């Protein structure tokens, strides 16, 4: 496929997730919650997660932000359902490496459809926007004792 067609596909997928986000809203039965803010651009995300048998059984996000942060949050929600906190940690590390231009060899296998955001590496100013939701979901679920976690964190604290 020609490079311009790939760029066009990338834009279409990102726009579709940003304008029609998956798992957008809130959960009635969330075990873990976290609000994160990216002070450099004003993105705000609320992530709510329900765990069952040590795995994400449901997830939702809300908030406001740029196209990249909203699309990334939408893709993240699709990919973490059914995953354990340790699997999510691996996904976050893989995603973070991918968007800075150092993807591991198996990144597509680990990230699924979210691997399309590899193109963010071309736009360093958007890396924090893309990683915001991924880092937030891990911070929200890493509390292993089953107690609801809540808080507000700035992106630089993640």
TrEMBL record:
Transmembrane segments: none annotated. GO terms for molecular function: iron ion binding; iron-sulfur cluster binding. Gene3D superfamilies: 3.90.1010.10. It comes from the Bacteria. InterPro entries: NIF_FeS_clus_asmbl_NifU_N (IPR002871). Residues 10-129 form the NIF system FeS cluster assembly NifU N-terminal domain. GO terms for biological process: iron-sulfur cluster assembly. SUPFAM superfamilies: SufE/NifU (SSF82649). CDD domains: IscU_like (cd06664). Belongs to the NifU family. This is SUF system NifU family Fe-S cluster assembly protein.
């Amino acid at each position: 496929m020609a490079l311009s067609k790939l760029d066009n596909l990338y834009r279409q997928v990102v726009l579709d997730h940003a304008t029609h986000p998956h798992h957008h809203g809130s959960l009635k039965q969330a075990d873990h919650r976290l609000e994160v803010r990216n002070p450099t651009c004003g993105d705000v995300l609320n992530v709510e997660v329900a765990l069952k048998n040590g795995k994400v059984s449901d997830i939702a996000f809300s908030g406001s932000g740029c196209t990249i942060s909203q699309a990334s949050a939408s893709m993240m929600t699709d990919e973490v359902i059914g995953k354990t906190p340790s699997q999510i940690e691996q996904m976050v590390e893989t995603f973070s490496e991918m968007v800075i231009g150092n993807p591991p060899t198996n990144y597509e296998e680990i990230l699924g459809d979210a691997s399309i955001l590899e193109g963010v590496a071309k736009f360093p100013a958007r890396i924090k926007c893309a990683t915001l939701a991924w880092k937030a979901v891990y911070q929200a679920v890493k509390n292993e004792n089953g107690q609801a976690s809540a808080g507000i964190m700035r992106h630089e604290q993640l």
